[in-house]
Design a protein that fits this description.
Layout (H helix, E strand, L loop, with lengths): L6 H16 L1 E3 H8 L3 H13 L3 E4 L2 E4 L1 H14 L2 H14 L5 E4 L3 H8 L7 E5 L2 H7 L5 E4 L4 E2 L6 E2 L1 H7 L4 E6 L3 E2 L4 E4 L5 H9 L1 E7 L11 E5 L5 E5 L4 H9 L4 E4 L3
Parallel strand pairs: 4-5, 4-9, 5-6, 9-12, 12-14, 14-15
Antiparallel strand pairs: 1-3, 2-3, 7-8, 10-11, 11-13
Helix pairs in contact: 2-3, 5-6, 6-7
């Protein structure tokens, strides 16, 4: 059981939230908002600066790199969350009877990982550190990280070691996210340095599904790396444009739709 946060920890968390919302806050402003003395705020800012959470400025503070990164990742996780959860429920059903699944480092596949709690006899191979953390304490799930370097600015693994180890593995299904899918069924990602890992994950699986919410449809990204017709299909959500989906079906792309609740 997690220990409850102390008053100082609660206050410091709120300080980070306020600075994230406003970009920069003065000591006087934080003191007013939190109802504590300026001296208490300065002690909190000193503690947060030591942790890399904030950078002190003249008379106040702005967010440190570590906190900017954490807030950015959490914001991406929350973006279109009902759609991601709808996709994740469909993906989880596809895993009935499977023993091994690969998940890339997208926030949509993180939603899939969250649907797997309580499963037994399943091995999850993932390049996503958040997905691995999500499942590491499930007694019926084995989590395998393929190794490699942690990519700058993103909590996932990449590089030659990751790719080499993925070549030695096999999964029943691989789920990949996408930053864009165009009318011709081409799949795009940003940034382009992740594509080699994604292609290795795809090559290692008997079936590959792209899991992309409806906001990604009709968009292009920085690098085109595959086409939906190569793989088992697309999983998207019920807000997707019916005409766009019909165009993909005409190309021969199987489509599964998760209903947003």
């Amino acid at each position: 059981m997690k220990r409850p946060l102390s008053r100082a920890q609660q206050r410091q968390h709120r300080i980070c939230q306020l600075i994230a919302e406003r970009g920069e806050c003065s000591v006087a402003e934080l003191s007013r908002q939190l109802g504590v003395s300026g001296m208490t705020i300065r002690r909190d800012l000193d503690a947060l600066e030591r942790q890399g959470q904030v950078l002190r400025t003249h008379g106040g503070a702005t967010l440190g790199y570590r906190t900017v990164f954490e807030f950015d990742f959490l914001e991406r996780v929350r973006l279109n969350l009902p759609a991601k959860e709808a996709i994740a429920r469909v993906a989880a059903e596809l895993l009935r009877g499977c023993t091994t699944v690969m998940l890339d480092a997208s926030t949509t596949t993180l939603a899939i990982a969250r649907q797997l709690h309580g499963r037994t006899g399943l091995t999850v191979i993932t390049t996503s550190l958040p997905a691995a953390s999500e499942l590491q304490h499930d007694p019926g799930i084995d989590v395998l990280l393929p190794g490699g370097y942690v990519r700058p600015n993103s909590p996932d693994l990449s590089g030659p070691i990751t790719e080499m180890n993925l070549e030695q593995l096999h999964a029943d299904i691989t789920f990949l996210g996408a930053d864009g899918i165009d009318q011709e069924g081409f799949v795009y990602v940003n940034p382009p340095d992740t594509t080699d890992v994604l292609l290795k994950m795809a090559a290692a699986a008997s079936r590959v599904y792209v899991a992309a919410d409806s906001t990604k449809l009709g968009r292009r990204g920085l690098r085109r790396f595959a086409r939906l017709t190569q793989w088992a299909g697309l999983i998207t959500d019920s807000r997707a444009d019916p005409q766009f989906l019909e165009n993909l079906r005409t190309l021969g792309v199987p489509i599964l739709i998760g209903q947003i609740r």
